[in-house]
């Protein structure tokens, strides 16, 4: 190798990991500073808005794990969010409001539902997988709607947020905000570690060519089932936090439309990037908030705009950012 060639070869190796670390760090730093901005602007509603953004970002991360890395397009992910939320609501109606009870139940219930349904769903492929996940999601939706003792179609009011070892910490908006931020960070780091591990490499290999991975000796079905259960439990965590944030649970949390919104969030941010799911969830909900304040017919603007972005912007918002960064680099000074 000539001396002149060495620096050029080293550039992609050095800059690519740095870029994938810097952008997520900036995203989490911005989220950490939201309370300070809300206080400075005397806009307390921003705290509630970004709490909701982070909760849906957790659910979007679970979708990105399945679609972006395992090529498992699911229209039933909202069911796990609803199960986590109903775990909080049903336990609260029986006087069980502590996190040490509610959180494990939410995770176990959503994980068990993912295990049972994934055992069936993952035996199908392509459009059949999409349809059967949709069917199981709707089954959960109609089951929740039929729970007359717990509100049925009208939903269930959660009288108070969960306590932490008897302490009402979740009742303080700032504390709850940072609890949600920490939960989002933990899920993001966990998924990032999974994707970078042998487990993630098998998922990505199966995404490209499942038959080849099978001939290499990997039991692809088991890896995909594990990913499905992990994503389901992440959805259950989002549901647990959502029930505490809104102090209300509803069958609408499980609707196929909500699952579709989660997919759009992922596509909007950038499929297969993880931090793109967070950016996409923020963009989706903030745009929705802004347009709904402008006109009551905001959905007529919102829908076509999302379709245009998803269809014509390859790589989502993260892809746009990367393209702009490359263009700026090409226009930069040359030594």
TrEMBL record:
Statement: the UniProt record of this protein carries the keyword Cell membrane: yes
CDD domains for this protein: TM_PBP1_LivM_like
Short name of one Pfam family: BPD_transp_2
Transmembrane regions: 21-47, 53-72, 79-96, 102-122, 127-148, 175-199, 220-242, 262-288, 300-325
Keyword Transmembrane annotated: yes
UniProt-recorded Gene Ontology molecular function terms: branched-chain amino acid transmembrane transporter activity
Membrane topology: Multi-pass membrane protein
Single GO cellular component term: plasma membrane
Keywords of this entry: Cell membrane, Membrane, Transmembrane, Transmembrane helix
Localization annotation: Cell membrane
UniProt cross-references to InterPro entries, sorted A to Z: ABC_transp_permease (IPR001851), LivM-like (IPR043428)
Protein name: Branched-chain amino acid ABC transporter permease
Species assigned in the record: Rhodoplanes roseus
Taxonomic lineage of the native organism: Bacteria, Pseudomonadati, Pseudomonadota, Alphaproteobacteria, Hyphomicrobiales
